[in-house]
């Protein structure tokens, strides 16, 4: 019995029952090939695939289907090609294992690619040895949740991203674990979307990298041990709450890099053991509230063209340098923050220091001018220089100070 005869036979069986049916795919089932099941299926059908089925050829779907994997059946790219390409709405895939996506210098092969899809779910799947994991083009109103994505990235030009969105809106990325790819999560022209409860770690470049994306929310994520940390660029109306930026070390690595960001809220985040906690350039009207900066090289670096930024009730704890600042103050303010290096007093016991705190050290200024001088860190000579500059500022900004430093850590 040839291939077309089989399809015709099962079409009679399934299509006669109507829409919304379930098609089982297993070795002992009437259908033992996922591609045949997809060809037979109608819109709104569900295909349930057993874990004794392995699919190793490219699959393309243009129907509204739900694909359910039972104990992670394997879809294998054989290190040659893209695995699953979907161009339809109302699509769900859950419970599959994708592996060995083909690498290419001319095409961005992905384990799952969605094109112009709406109202979709990609949930509870496993991805191993991927080039790109999940790639969305011009999609909206979708959910990517509870997936585990692992790559084998070694150099940037031979690696792709874990979750990659381009020209999308209203996407939620929730509780995924992404590691060992180029950029863990990548946004370009993505609006009104949420990135929540994810872990992005040990990636070659950025844990999160997004550009030209507005009105997005990032909450309760962990970005750890990424080559260059997290980069947020050329965007506006961004909310970043209760995230952790941890152990992003390197000569060009940041907990959070901000470039050309406008009207953002960065609140209750933790920046711990990064080369630079926050590096801001050309970023305006940002509220930094209730963040913890712990044991970073530089807690905050403010470069040129930053205006109207407010640092309030943040905790600066045991950083080598709390603040490095270039240029004029430009209506940026530091007020009601806790500084572990503050040596003032509180005679009226109101919880606020009676003497302003100047967080910019002379040695920070020297290191910016001559990085090699870092070898003098913690020497007696540097302590004397910092103290003399604090008493009579010459090189550091005279108008950059916290007039109401907290005596105890902000809650």
TrEMBL record:
It holds the Pfam family NosD. Residues 146-344 form the Periplasmic copper-binding protein NosD beta helix domain. It comes from the Bacteria. InterPro entries: NosD_copper_fam (IPR026464), NosD_dom (IPR007742), Para_beta_helix_rpt-2 (IPR022441), PbH1 (IPR006626), Pectin_lyas_fold (IPR012334), Pectin_lyase_fold/virulence (IPR011050). This is NosD. It comes from Zhouia amylolytica AD3. The lineage of its organism: Bacteria, Pseudomonadati, Bacteroidota, Flavobacteriia, Flavobacteriales.
């Amino acid at each position: 019995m040839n291939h077309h005869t089989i399809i015709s036979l099962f079409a009679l069986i399934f299509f006669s029952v109507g829409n919304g049916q379930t098609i089982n795919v297993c070795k002992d089932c009437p259908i033992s090939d996922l591609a045949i099941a997809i060809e037979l299926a109608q819109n709104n059908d569900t295909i349930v695939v057993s874990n004794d089925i392995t699919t190793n050829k490219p699959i393309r779907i243009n129907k509204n289907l739900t694909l359910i994997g039972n104990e992670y059946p394997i879809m294998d790219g054989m290190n040659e090609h893209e695995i699953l390409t979907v161009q339809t709405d109302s699509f769900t895939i859950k419970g599959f294992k994708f592996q060995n996506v083909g690498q290419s210098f001319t095409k961005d092969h992905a384990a799952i690619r969605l094109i112009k899809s709406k109202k979709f779910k990609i949930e509870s799947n496993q991805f191993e040895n991927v080039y790109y994991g999940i790639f969305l083009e011009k999609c909206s109103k979708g959910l990517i949740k509870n997936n585990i994505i692992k790559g084998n990235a070694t150099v940037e030009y031979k690696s792709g991203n874990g979750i990659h969105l381009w020209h999308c809106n209203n996407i939620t990325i929730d509780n995924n674990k992404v590691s060992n790819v180029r950029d863990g999560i990548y946004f370009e022209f993505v609006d009104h979307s949420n990135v929540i409860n994810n872990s992005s770690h040990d990636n070659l470049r950025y844990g999160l990298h997004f550009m030209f994306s507005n009105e997005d929310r990032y909450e309760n994520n962990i970005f750890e041990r990424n080559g260059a940390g997290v980069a947020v660029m050329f965007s506006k109306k961004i909310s970043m709450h209760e995230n952790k930026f941890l152990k992003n070390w390197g000569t060009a690595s940041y907990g959070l890099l901000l470039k050309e960001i406008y009207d953002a809220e960065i609140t209750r985040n933790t920046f711990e053991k990064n080369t630079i906690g926050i590096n801001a350039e050309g970023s305006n009207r940002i509220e930094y509230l209730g963040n913890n900066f712990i044991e970073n090289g530089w807690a905050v670096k403010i470069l040129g063209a930053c205006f109207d930024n407010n640092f309030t009730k943040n905790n600066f704890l045991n950083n080598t340098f709390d603040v490095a600042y270039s240029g004029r103050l430009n209506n940026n303010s530091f007020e009601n923050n806790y500084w572990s290096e503050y040596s003032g007093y509180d005679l009226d016991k109101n919880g606020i220091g009676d003497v302003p705190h100047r967080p910019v050290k002379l040695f920070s200024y020297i290191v910016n001018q001559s990085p090699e001088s870092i070898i003098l860190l913690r020497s007696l000579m540097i302590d004397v220089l910092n103290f003399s500059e604090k008493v009579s500022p010459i090189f550091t900004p005279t108008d950059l100070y916290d007039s109401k430093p907290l005596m105890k850590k902000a809650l």
